[in-house]
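Late entry, written up from scratch paper. The run itself happened at the end of the previous shift, but nothing got recorded in the book at the time, so transcribing now.
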Amino acid sequence: MLKACEENLSQEGIDVITKQADFRYLEEVWVEKFDAVLCMTQSIAHLHTHEDLVTAFKSMRERLNDGGILIITQGTTHFTLQDRFRFDLVVNNQDFSRVFSRDIGEGFQTINILDIYHSDKVSKMETNSVHIKIILDDEYKSLLTEAGFSQINIYGGYDMSPYDKESSWKLIVVAER
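Output as recorded:
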C-alpha cells in the first residue's frame, strides 16, 4: 500500500515521506511530531485486544503536537451492522465488481471479499477475508480517554454531522491531544 500511495502522490506532484510502522510503536519510525494523525478506513480494527488498541492510541497521541488531532474513519457503524447490510455491492463498473459479505460475531466481523474482474482483457474471480474488531462510538471514547486524549468528538460523516446509531453510514472520530 505504501508503494501505491507513493505512486498516487507522485502523480499528483505531492512530495511526502512515507514509512511503514506499527500503530503501537510509531515512535520507533517517526521521531517527528505532527499536527494531525490520520487512521483511515478501519485500519485500527485489525488490532484485536484492548491492550493493543490503547498502546496504539498512546503512540499516536505521542506523535502529536500539543493541540494536535487524531482523525479516525470507518464504515462500520451501528446502522451498517444490521442484517440487511450483510451483503454489499461495493464497486460495480464495466471492468470490475466487488462484493462484501459480512459475518458478524461477538465483538468481531469477518468481511469476505469477492473481486470479479470482467473486462475484455481479464476474466477471473478472487476471494479474500479480513477479521476485524468492531469498535463503535462508546468504545472509541473509552479507549481514547484511557490513552490520554481530550475533546473526543464522534461524527456520522465527513460533513461533521452528529453520529446517529439509527442512520449513520460512517463513524468519524476526532480527538485532541
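The chain has a mean pLDDT of 96.
(Scratch paper discarded after transcription.)
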